[in-house]
Each structure stands twice: as structure tokens, then as C-alpha cells.
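Order emerges. One example.
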Amino acid sequence: MTELIIDTEGAGQVKITDEVIAIIAGTAALEIEGVAGMAGKLSGDIAQILGRHNLGKGVIVEVAGGGVKVTLNILAKFGYKLQEMSEAIQRRVETAIDNMLGLNTQEININISGVLYYDGDGYGNSAKPQKKKRRYNEP
């Protein structure tokens, strides 16, 4: 975990961890219409939907030269324009980081890791489950 250290004028230092920046970026992204959640990785290539308890997960932060580079792994809701949604995420994350931390964002990269559909009970997997076909002799 890296820290960004900000010197205040004679009053000491403020240390901000990359986890704090990730939480701010993740929270800002979730405010955008069309974002179903953040995507994280478990073992292998199994994607995990991360709810609001893990707001910094699915976000990679690099602190470089007084600014930050942020990469967000997003799960989108089906039916939204991904380009417009991504641009809105970038604007919102940049504004949140600037307003809360006063930091320059050098890059905000969006990875759309999946598209979720609404099945009546909520947003589910990116592929609709197939019903098993019954044979005549099966109950």
C-alpha cells in the first residue's frame, strides 16, 4: 500500500493511502446511472460482483508525480450506452478526487468487465441461464 504525503504549510503532513483514493473513486463511479457494481477477481478468472461494502475493490490506484492514475473495473447494466457511461464515470471520479483531495488526476481508465441483465429479481449474470430441457421420462 502506498501513501500520498501532502505537506501543509507549517502545520505538518497529511497522509492519504491509495485505499482511500480507491474508495472515493469507487463510490463516485457507483453514483453513475448504468453502473451495476464494481468487478473484482477471486481465484482464476472468476469475476465477483462487489457490493457497497467493498467500495475500493475493483479500483487500482497509482500515485505518480503529485497526481493519481485510477483504473476502475466496472460491471454495467444491460441497455446503457457504454461509451457515454464511461465518460460520465471519468468526469465524476475526476471531480470527486479533486473536490475531496485536491489532487490532479492524470488518467482515469475504465474497464467494463461485464454486462448484467435485469431478470425481475435484480441484476444477474452476463449470460442468461438456460432452462434444462426435460425428456419424456424425467419427472
